[in-house]
User: Which sequence fits this backbone?
């Protein structure tokens, strides 16, 4: 598919859903403009209403009771995306309500705050050649010993994307390290491909990415840091930003250090993307942590915990806080930072005494279980604080996956 056809792909979703709901629409009287403030309820046989269903009153009966506008919004904002997309096809008024930016934000807020993770999915990227994706429920991983992954079907096949950059508000970002990124909403089956990055390949060069939401300007941004050699042990960086909704990459200030070859971690609470980089002369540690404020597009070094220097560190995000995985020969420590830039805000969350060379925290349950991607066995790990062990839940239909990321179901579209 050509890049210019992204918008057509987004419009196809309405057509598919409209066909699925044709029989339902034939049973409904057009609610008209008043449908924005009314949700029909089932009556007569005493059955409970099913979320997402709308029923016309039997012929000759009294009109069904209606819900106040504010209560209608509360009900709809708790429905899964699939149900909302079907209801959007009932009539123009309902489509207008469900597509309204304020409702999209309301629904996103309710999904993110769900303590049981019923709106959260774990996605796996398989073959890099065919861009195969599978997903399963985060709720099932936390609550059952076994679950099954399903194939995530797309209307078209994209090739060449070899890494997951991250997820934000229901959008997933995939990158081809030298060419650009693909943004998608798996719940809505909508895709958007970025313009060509345009960096000239060089021997020993590499590109690291970051993806997040700019609260100040109400937009989504992808950051690409191109690192290239300039002689013996000398590296420089070329930083570009792609703002969703535009058609170009633009340059910003050079990155203050040379980042390691890893994706940046977005922290919504601070509006920053964070990377680990090689330390400059005079630093206490062989590495530094640098954050980019997406709104101001300025850099700041993040002060680290007062820990003993180990082998290496990596970054993650838990509870909407930046966290550091600090590896030693015999164990790893997981530190959590609640207030950006303050040394005293760092707290050691757990110490894991297992042979793990990479621990990518994905999310944590109410009782403190930590869902993570682990290496060397390339498996999903579930740390249980009750026995301080990392277990590996059974996920059927998963073999040889490359990467994993948690995303929340939302109505946010990459095509807007």
Assistant:
């Amino acid at each position: 598919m050509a890049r210019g056809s992204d918008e057509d792909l987004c419009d196809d979703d309405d057509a598919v859903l409209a066909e699925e709901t044709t029989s339902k629409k034939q049973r409904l009287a057009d609610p008209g403009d008043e449908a924005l403030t009314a949700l029909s309820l089932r009556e007569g046989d005493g059955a409970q209403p099913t979320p997402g269903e709308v029923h016309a009153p039997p012929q000759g009966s009294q009109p069904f009771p209606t819900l106040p506008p504010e209560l209608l919004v509360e009900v709809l904002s708790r429905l899964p995306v699939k149900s909302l997309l079907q209801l959007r096809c009932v009539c123009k008024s309902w489509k207008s309500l469900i597509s309204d930016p304020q409702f999209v934000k309301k629904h996103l807020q309710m999904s993110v705050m769900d303590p049981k993770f019923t709106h959260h999915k774990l996605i796996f990227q398989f073959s890099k050649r065919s861009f195969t994706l599978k997903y399963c429920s985060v709720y099932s991983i936390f609550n059952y010993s076994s679950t099954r992954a399903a194939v995530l079907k797309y209307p078209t096949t994209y090739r060449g994307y070899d890494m997951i950059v991250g997820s934000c508000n229901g959008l997933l970002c995939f990158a081809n390290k030298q060419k650009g990124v693909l943004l998608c909403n798996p719940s809505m089956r909508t895709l958007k491909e970025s313009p060509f990055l345009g960096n000239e390949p060089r021997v020993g060069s590499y590109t690291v990415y970051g993806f997040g939401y700019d609260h100040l300007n109400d937009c989504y941004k992808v950051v690409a840091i191109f690192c290239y050699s300039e002689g013996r042990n000398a590296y420089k960086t070329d930083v570009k930003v792609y703002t969703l909704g535009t058609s170009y990459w633009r340059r910003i200030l050079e990155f203050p250090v040379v980042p390691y070859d890893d994706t940046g971690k977005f922290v919504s609470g601070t509006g920053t993307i964070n990377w680990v980089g090689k330390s400059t002369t005079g630093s206490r540690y062989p590495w530094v942590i640098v954050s980019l404020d997406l709104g101001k597009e300025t850099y700041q070094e993040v002060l680290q915990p007062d820990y003993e220097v180990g082998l290496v560190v990596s970054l993650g995000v838990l509870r909407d806080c930046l966290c550091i995985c600090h590896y030693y020969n015999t164990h790893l420590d997981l530190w959590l930072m609640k207030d950006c830039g303050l040394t005293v805000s760092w707290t050691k969350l757990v110490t894991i005494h297992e042979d793990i060379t990479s621990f990518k925290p994905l999310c944590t349950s109410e009782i403190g279980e930590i869902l993570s991607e682990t290496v060397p066995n390339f498996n999903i790990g579930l740390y249980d604080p009750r026995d301080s062990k990392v277990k590996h839940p059974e996920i059927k239909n998963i073999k040889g996956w490359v990467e994993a990321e948690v995303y929340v179901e939302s109505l946010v579209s990459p095509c807007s």
Observations:
- Residues 3-99 form one domain.
- Residues 1-54 have pLDDT under 50 and may be disordered.
- The first helix runs from residue 6 to 20.
- The longest strand covers residues 219-229.
